[in-house]
Amino acid sequence: MAGTPFGRSWGDSPDRDRHGTEGSGHRAGRPRRHGADGAPPRAWQRSFRCQSGIGRSAWRADSAMARYRRFVALHEAFSQPPQVNERRLWLSGAGVSAAAAGAAFAGVLVLRGLFGFDVPAFGGHQGRAVPVAATYALCAAAAGLQATALLNVLATVAARPVRAFGWIGALAVLLLTLLPLTVRAPLDDALATAALNLVTGCLITGSVAAAGAWSMSWPPPPRAPY
Questions:
Q1: Same domain, yes or no: 142 and 53
Q2: CA-to-CA separations, 8 to 16, 95, 132, 143, 171, in angstroms, rounded
Q3: Where are the transmembrane segments (predicted)?
Q4: Considering the domain boundaries, does residue 77 fall inside one?
């Protein structure tokens, strides 16, 4: 089989081309190729037209260990906690707390003054709108600062602090939304309080999570040695 379309057979002469002529064409004088260990080419190496891969080395233990070390280094780089810019985080948290306090204050005034709802529902009819709104605004500001402190703690102990904070914040917002529905109060007042808690809680959780993602930076992955 001197003239196969996939290259020379093993029994052919190195100086014979595919048409069987000695010393003619660009194949004349080309030495016979062997494997990496000096053994003759195997069947799968002779079955392809491209013969450049025959001399390449096979899988070696050192290459496997090098790939394993690169994988371990990449995993350790991704497992490291992020670097937190605490000044930026707390300034953002203070701004979120002020915005949440303003939203709660305005929400109580609007719901009590314009629509006539007794918000919060557990407060009853006692008290005027401004003192009740100020108290609710202080609670919202305290919640924003506590959320900022929680995210700062999670940044040092959690692999994905923003995601963990999002789950915790979603659970807290759910509880605060369902809490007014459990008190003995008119249904419309309880629903108005639940809606206000939902809006304020989503504002605090989303804004603090965005501020935390903006204030954190992860180390870059290790560069490959090639």
A1: no
A2: 9, 77, 94, 79, 71
A3: 89-115, 135-157, 164-183, 195-214
A4: no
Q: Mean pLDDT across the stretch 136-160?
A: 93
Is residue 148 in some structural domain? yes
Its pTM stands at 0.64
Is the CB of residue 121 less than 8 Å from the CB of residue 179? no
Q: Three-state DSSP class for 100?
A: helix
Query: CB 146: neighbour CB atoms within 10 A?
Result: 15
What is the distance between the terminal CA atoms of the chain, rounded to a whole angstrom? 42
**Rounded Cα–Cα distance for residues 209 and 164 (Å):** 10
Tell me whether residue 50 is exposed, middle or buried, using C-beta atoms within 10 angstroms of its C-beta: 0 to 12, 13 to 18, 19 or more: exposed
- Asked whether residue 195 carries a pLDDT value surpassing 90, the answer given is yes
| Mean pLDDT value of segment 155-166 | 90
What interhelical angle do 187-215 and 161-178 show, nearest 10?
170
Q: What per-residue confidence (pLDDT) applies to 129?
A: 83
